[in-house]
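Please decode residue identities from the backbone states below.
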């Protein structure tokens, strides 16, 4: 479609490195953008825009739905966790955010009767 060289190899590289949370996507995004730059600047820009949309819109929504945390909270949690504790902080940020959200819900909106769990 865009005549990017080594498209199949780049696709396999993207699939493998996307399995590494946080940094995998960044590394492969830079590699793909540099290869796409050999075609033209608009193609490189399109790949960068696609990666950013995937990393900051699509992935947080999917992860947020999986752990029932809003997408914005997911993005902020990963950024704060990464800034505070590096890679480990970014990896544990989403489970910590989910636990904090659950704790806040239980404290702010306790079940109606003792022993009863609140349904969503």
């Amino acid at each position: 479609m865009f005549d990017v060289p080594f498209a199949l190899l780049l696709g396999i590289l993207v699939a493998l490195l996307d399995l590494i949370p946080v940094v995998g996507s960044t590394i492969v995004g830079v590699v793909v953008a540099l290869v796409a730059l050999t075609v033209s600047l608009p193609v490189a820009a399109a790949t960068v825009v696609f990666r950013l949309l995937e990393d900051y819109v699509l992935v947080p929504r999917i992860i947020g739905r999986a752990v029932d945390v809003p997408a914005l909270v997911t993005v902020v949690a990963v950024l704060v966790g990464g800034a505070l504790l590096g890679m480990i902080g970014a990896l544990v940020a989403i489970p910590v955010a989910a636990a904090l959200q659950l704790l806040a819900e239980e404290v702010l909106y306790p079940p109606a009767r003792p022993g009863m769990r609140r349904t969503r």
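Observation: The chain has a mean pLDDT of 86.
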